[in-house]
UniProtKB/TrEMBL annotation:
It comes from Pseudoalteromonas rubra. This is Porin domain-containing protein.
Length: 399
C-alpha cells in the first residue's frame, strides 16, 4: 500500500476518532471497471503509456476496483478514505483519497487531506466509468496525469438562484511525484508548490457550463536534472569550447528549466442533455511559463443519442496540440549553440501531437452497471506510433 505521512495521519485520525465515537456511522461504496482492451499502431509503440501497443487483448490495462469508506462523526464532521487497485499497477492497493470534512452549513463544506486535484471538469470522477458515456474519457484531455490527487485544503460551496444552481471549489495544496515524459521514455520526478485552484459550474435544467484554473510553482526535480539539463551537457560543453561564458550558460539553464516557474492549467466547456440528444465540449490549455515546456491546447467534442432509454451511442472527436513555436523563453540566451539547444529541447518536449475519432455504445443492463463498447482510431505524430486504433469492451459498475 502506498501511503505517505499525510495520508497515514488522516487514516490514523479516522481510526482513533472512530474508536472513541462508536456511534459513528460508516458507509461503504465503491466502483469498478472490468475491461478488455487491445491497442495497435503502425509504428508498434503504444499510443498511450497505460496501454500495450502490440494488438494483444489485455484484461488488466484499464480494469480497476475501488472501495470508499465514509465515517459520519456527527455535528457536520466526517472522514473519507478511498482505496483503489488498478490493473496497470498489478492491482496494488493505493490510498487515493484520505481526507476529513466539516460541513460549516448546508452551503459550505471544508475538507483537509488528500483528494482529487480538479485539473479538468471530470477530474474527481474520471476513474468512475459509470458516470460518463464513453468507453474511456477522451485521452486528449484526460491523459492520465500523475497529479490527479493533491494534498491540501478545499472549500466546496453550493448556491441556488431561482432556476440556476452554482457550485464552486476553492483549493490550496501541493503535490510531489513523477510524470511520464515521451522525451526520455520514462517517469521523471517533479512537484507542485502552493497550488491555488478555482472551479465553477453553473446548471439550469438540461444544460451546464463550467470552467476552472489553477496556478502552481513548479519544483523541477529530475525533469530538470535529467530530461532537460542532463541531455544538454554535451551541447553546453561544445558552447564552452566555443567561448560561452559562465553567465551565458547560466542564462541558458535558467531559461530551459522548470524549477521556480509558474505552471498554469485552465479548462472550460459545456454539457447539454436535452430529450434524446447529449452534447459535450471541453477545452484545456496548460503548460509551464517561461520554460522549455510548450503550452498544450487540447479539446474534445462529443455527440450522443439515446437510441433507447437504456442505450446511448456517442461519437466524439479529440485533439492534442503542443505549441513549440513560442521561443520567447530564449530571449536572454544569445550564444548560438545554446540557443539552438534550447529550441531542440523545446521540440523534444513537444514531441507528440495526436487526434482521434471514437464511437462508444453504452447499454445499462442493470441499475448499477453499464456494458460499454468503444472503438477509437487516430494519428500520432510520433514515428514510433503513427496511425493507431484502440478497441475495448467491458462493464462499469457502482456499488
Amino acid at each position: 500500500m502506498n501511503c505517505n505521512n499525510a495520508v497515514k495521519w488522516v487514516i490514523g485520525g479516522v481510526m482513533v476518532t472512530s474508536s472513541f465515537t462508536s456511534y459513528a456511522e460508516i458507509v461503504f461504496n465503491g466502483f469498478a471497471s472490468l475491461r478488455a482492451t487491445a491497442a495497435d499502431s503502425d509504428g508498434g509503440a503504444p499510443p498511450f503509456p497505460t496501454l500495450h501497443g502490440d494488438g494483444d487483448v489485455s484484461f488488466s490495462d484499464e480494469s480497476l476496483f475501488a472501495l470508499q469508506a465514509r465515517a459520519d462523526l456527527s455535528e457536520g464532521l466526517s472522514a473519507t478514505v478511498q482505496m483503489i487497485a488498478e490493473g496497470q499497477d498489478d492491482f496494488e492497493v493505493e490510498a487515493r483519497w484520505a481526507y476529513v470534512s466539516y460541513e460549516i452549513n448546508p452551503q459550505h463544506t471544508v475538507s483537509m487531506g488528500r483528494f482529487a486535484n480538479p485539473s479538468f471538469y471530470q477530474s474527481e470522477y474520471q476513474n468512475v466509468g459509470y458516470t460518463h458515456n464513453f468507453g474511456r474519457l477522451p485521452k486528449a484531455v484526460y491523459a492520465g496525469f500523475d497529479f490527479t490527487t493533491i494534498e491540501g485544503i478545499s472549500l466546496d460551496s453550493n448556491f441556488v438562484f431561482g432556476e440556476y444552481a452554482l457550485s464552486t471549489k476553492l483549493l490550496y495544496g501541493s503535490w510531489r511525484g513523477t510524470t511520464y515524459l515521451a522525451a526520455t521514455q520514462q517517469d521523471e520526478s517533479f512537484g507542485f508548490k502552493d497550488e491555488i485552484s478555482v472551479r465553477l459550474e453553473l446548471t439550469k435544467g438540461w444544460w451546464t457550463v463550467y470552467g476552472g484554473f489553477f496556478i502552481v510553482e513548479i519544483e523541477g526535480g529530475s525533469v530538470d536534472t535529467n530530461a532537460i539539463l542532463g541531455n544538454a551537457q554535451q551541447a553546453i560543453a561544445l558552447a564552452q569550447s566555443q567561448g560561452a561564458s559562465a553567465a551565458q550558460v547560466k542564462a541558458f539553464e535558467d531559461a530551459v528549466t522548470w524549477d521556480g516557474k509558474n505552471g498554469l492549467y485552465g479548462y472550460t466547456g459545456f454539457h447539454i442533455d436535452y430529450d434524446r440528444v447529449i452534447l459535450d465540449f471541453e477545452y484545456a490549455d496548460y503548460g509551464v511559463e517561461d520554460s522549455s515546456d510548450g503550452f498544450n491546447q487540447v479539446w474534445y467534442t462529443a455527440f450522443g443519442y439515446r437510441v433507447f432509454d437504456d442505450t446511448i451511442v456517442t461519437l466524439h472527436h479529440e485533439k492534442f496540440l503542443q505549441d513549440n513555436k513560442d521561443l520567447d523563453f530564449l530571449n536572454g540566451v544569445d550564444q548560438p549553440t545554446l540557443k539552438a539547444t534550447g529550441i531542440a529541447i523545446r521540440n523534444s518536449l513537444a514531441l507528440r501531437e495526436f487526434d482521434g475519432i471514437g464511437l462508444s455504445v453504452r447499454y445499462d443492463f442493470h441499475p448499477n452497471a453499464a456494458l460499454k463498447f468503444q472503438y477509437v482510431a487516430g494519428e500520432d505524430t510520433r514515428p514510433s506510433v503513427g496511425d493507431y486504433s484502440i478497441w475495448s469492451a467491458g462493464v462499469d459498475l457502482i456499488f
